[in-house]
User: What shape does this take?
Amino acid sequence: MADISDFYDLDSTLGDDEIMIRDTVSRFVENEFNPIVAEHFEAGTFPMELVPTIADMGLLGMHLDGYGCAGASASAYGIACRELESGDSGLRSFVSVQGSLCMFPIWKYGSEEQKQQWLPRMATGEIIGCFGLTEPDHGSDPSSMTTRAVKVGDKWVLNGAKRWITNAGIAQLAIVWANTDEGFRGFLVPTDSPGFEARKIENKLSLRASITGEFYMTDVEVPETMRLPDAISIGAPLSCLSEARYGIAFGAVGVARSCYKAALEYQLDRPQFGKPLASFQINQIKFADMLTQMTNANLQANRLGQLKEANTLRPFHISMAKRHNCRVAIDAARTARAMMGANGVSTEYSPMRHANNMESVMTYEGTEEIHGLILGQEITGIPSFK
Amino acid sequence: MKVVVCVKQIPDPALPGELNPTTNLLKRDGKLILDESDSYGVEMALQLVEAAGGGEVSLVSMAPNNEMSGLRTALAMGADDAILVSDENLAGTDALGTAKVLAAAIRRLSPDLILAGVESSDGYTGTVPEMVAGVLDLPSVTFAKQISIDGDTVKVQRQTEAGYDDVECKLPVLLSVTAGVVEPRYPSFKGIMAAKKKPVEALDLQGLGIDLNTVGLVGARQETIRVTEAEERESGEIIVDDGDAHQRIAEFLGELKVI
Ligand SMILES: Cc1cc2nc3c(=O)[nH]c(=O)nc-3n(C[C@@H](O)[C@H](O)[C@H](O)COP(=O)(O)OP(=O)(O)OC[C@H]3O[C@@H](n4cnc5c(N)ncnc54)[C@H](O)[C@@H]3O)c2cc1C
Ligand SMILES: Cc1cc2nc3c(=O)[nH]c(=O)nc-3n(C[C@H](O)[C@H](O)[C@H](O)COP(=O)(O)OP(=O)(O)OC[C@H]3O[C@@H](n4cnc5c(N)ncnc54)[C@H](O)[C@@H]3O)c2cc1C
Assistant: This one.
């Protein structure tokens, strides 16, 4: 049966290069990642052995120009995220955190020396970054953060804790956001600095094939040259989040597609009451709903790509798509899971893993509620959460 | 060092193929992709040039409708340039005709080494490489699983049923590369974007100086006489375990002489 998961043939709006990037990433996910993801999900590990291949393709910082980065289009970046996340949100997270949350701030707010020092080695995966904004007591409201940096001579002294940080524990470089007497600033902090201590968070029931951790800084000193000179407000970390959320809007489509396909294949194959499950009306309606919602999500992502390329993309556009598409993905994952009965709860099939992952993806990078409130502010002109 | 790789562009094997009912030939009017069998030759060529500390990897392909999607993939992997031969008069060209065309294109490049796949994934006659070598009057070594260059000599491990032969041969030479012996790299995104700008010389038969009567349907000495449906696979025997299943499986494998 023909694959109609791209129902309106939205990929026909992509250029040749973008199609080739899509096919390359999807082949990588299918051949190298999907066969091992279940093991890593169970073990709570990320397949670090794939990092050289991920880097060789050019996935790390792929939408940035220069400094060893591929300089691909915004749509190509989105499509790559979609294909990665069809495998697992942990895989897309790895690429998002490295490219959008760690390389992007250096590329956008860093000095020329900082860019040359860090970006090429981050593009090759030699240096892995993590992005420390969230704190144990401050998540949705990062402006109330308590991590502080104090200037002493030409050095900065950092104190504070960051929690729920992807790749903390395996990263060599932390992008740390801290409050200072002058306002919010960003720092490049090598994780082997004296006073810097990172720990992995165990016992996660979600995004298990991704490392999440926390770090503590006790009088960690960095020179002024490790401060991002052009990051001078909370807008700087938020702009990084916008980059990553943009990718999530696409990634969620990949999740929905993976779940839809898994359930469809399963139900076409499995007879109950003498005929395939897919032949029952109620299941066909479920597939129709899934495909419709997935198409809605895909349309939003596709349009985001066009707006980003036209430089007219606004943060609230991303809020709508991130919020909507994550909801579509988690609903598809749960529906697909149930449509596969008992087998649906095993790691052999993707939907329950995706459903669990989406709990994190709906929470990080701005929760469903917060993105709704950002839209609410745009709609009414009244901020409800400030 | 200059290496030429013969790459065939074929209909995507993941999509249902279709035969032309009058000629019994595979329809090739849609998008064609790089034959996976040839991705090994491309990878091998890139590695040899890297090991030699420099050189050039050129591709040669014959395909209908100036189709170059498959060439782009190989260029994105890192090949430098390509010659694409496309001509309406090539319709119906058989293996020898294909070899004549490829040989004429290769001659223009005067390479040190020519690589091809052992057999393509769609036609898989496994005859074209040796015919190309024949037309070019070059030695050829089949089933190469490892290749190294030492001055003007190539050393080849040639896969055999029992193991491998060590073969040495003076350059220039044509080698057919066994599928699976190297891990073809994924095209890099930079490579993908650069591939568009790499030179692809499109030639027709006239441009190659080939006599129209020696190729195409008129020149073909091979003819596809009949096509029959592949036999449906019989469903296997189901063994229900009554405690002796392991024995029956062992017997079955014994009959197949695999254990
Ligand atoms: C009677 C007949 C009519 C045909 N008519 C047509 C036609 O109308 N249109 C058409 O497109 N094909 C046609 N073909 C297919 C023909 O051109 C095949 O390419 C040729 O027979 C090679 O066969 P193969 O695929 O078995 O090659 P193999 O010998 O199995 O291939 C081995 C290697 O040779 C090289 N090679 C083979 N073919 C090519 C190529 N085309 N370009 C570059 N490298 C190559 C590759 O490295 C490949 O891995 C026809 C074949 C026959 C027998
Ligand atoms: C697996 C994982 C990886 C992560 N990786 C990173 C990372 O790499 N870097 C990083 O900095 N952070 C990371 N995070 C943290 C993530 O960004 C935060 O968890 C998120 O911003 C929410 O913050 P919180 O957990 O403190 O929830 P809270 O802010 O405490 O929110 C709890 C609940 O209250 C709701 N809520 C909050 N405020 C309001 C309001 N005004 N009105 C209505 N409802 C409200 C929220 O929507 C949520 O449902 C990660 C989280 C997870 C789970």
Observations:
- The helical segments of chain B are 36-51, 69-77, 95-107, 128-136, 189-195, 205-208, 216-219, 245-255.
